[in-house]
Amino acid sequence: MAPTEPNPPQQETPAYHPGSLRDVFTPRNRYRVTPILMLLNIAVFAVMVFSGVNIMSPTGQDLVHWGANYTTLTRAGEPWRLLTACFLHIGVIHLAVNMMSLRYLGMQIEPLLGSWRFLVAYLATGLTGSLGSLWWHTVAVSAGASGAIFGIEGVLLALVLTNLFTDDVRKALLKSTLSVVGINLLIGISIGADNAAHIGGLLGGLVCGMAFYPGIRSELGWPVPNWMTAKWFAIGLPIAMVIITSLLVF
């Protein structure tokens, strides 16, 4: 009997097209937290709009009602606003811009960090962004995910400054990351955005990046002290950062 040719391997047909809505919002391996955060932000905004909030330009009263970081109330015993403000947006354009940024960063950075670190970074830097706004402004209403988005950029910046990347990659990433951060801060100045929250998130991201570095290094097979690779270290340091910053601000 003559030997037969083996059947060529069948290529797996993707369940959805890259860039489609299903691709953007479907959690999967190495991209689990980003779409969930996006959906949560969008869901909160949708509920606000269905309740009667203006889709283009919510009033300050509406934002405060839904949990914005209003300095007077936040300092007067409602610190939960530091977190809820990270999921509120001041109009559909604000939401769209932030979600596009979160999608782009999530695609690039969540696979590097791992989903649980990405979630820790979003929450911790969102809080430091809110704290930065609270520290800088005497009276203000602030909301949006941009503090956390700057925080994710800060995590990347911290990791770029380590030896995780080759020299060529490090230089390219450093240049692009600093350019994006600088441009967005300038845009924030030009449109009157809350750059105090942006900078607070960015600085928080640098601390988170340093906390995550040992664990990522260990996952690559490089020698690291065991205690520095534990989850309590990668989670505990950001928590300590938020607590210390809160004590300084309040």
Structural account:
Helix 10 packs antiparallel against helix 12 (231-249). The chain has 12 helices and 2 strands, in the order αααβααααβααααα. It is an all-alpha fold. It has a two-stranded antiparallel sheet with strand order 1-2. It starts with 20 loop residues before the first helix and ends with a helix.
Helix content: 55-70%
- In DSSP terms (H or I, runs of 4 or more residues), the helix count works out at 12
Mean pLDDT: 91
Order of helical and strand elements: HHHEHHHHEHHHHH
Structural class by sheet pairing and helices: mainly alpha
Largest sheet: 2 strands, antiparallel
Arrangement of strands in the largest sheet: 1-2
Shape: globular
How many strand elements?
Answer: 2
The poorly predicted ranges are 1-14
Strand content: under 5%
Rg: 20 Å
End-to-end distance, in Å? 84 Å
Give a short summary of the structure.
The chain has helices at residues 21-25, 33-50, 60-66, 71-75, 81-84, 92-113, 115-136, 146-160, 167-191, 195-219, 226-229, 231-249, and strands spanning 69-70, 141-142. With 250 residues, the protein is mainly alpha-helical. The longest helix is centred in the C-terminal third of the chain and has 25 residues, at 167-191.
Show the helix and strand layout:
Blueprint: H1 21-25, H2 33-50, H3 60-66, E1 69-70, H4 71-75, H5 81-84, H6 92-113, H7 115-136, E2 141-142, H8 146-160, H9 167-191, H10 195-219, H11 226-229, H12 231-249
Antiparallel strand pairs: 1-2
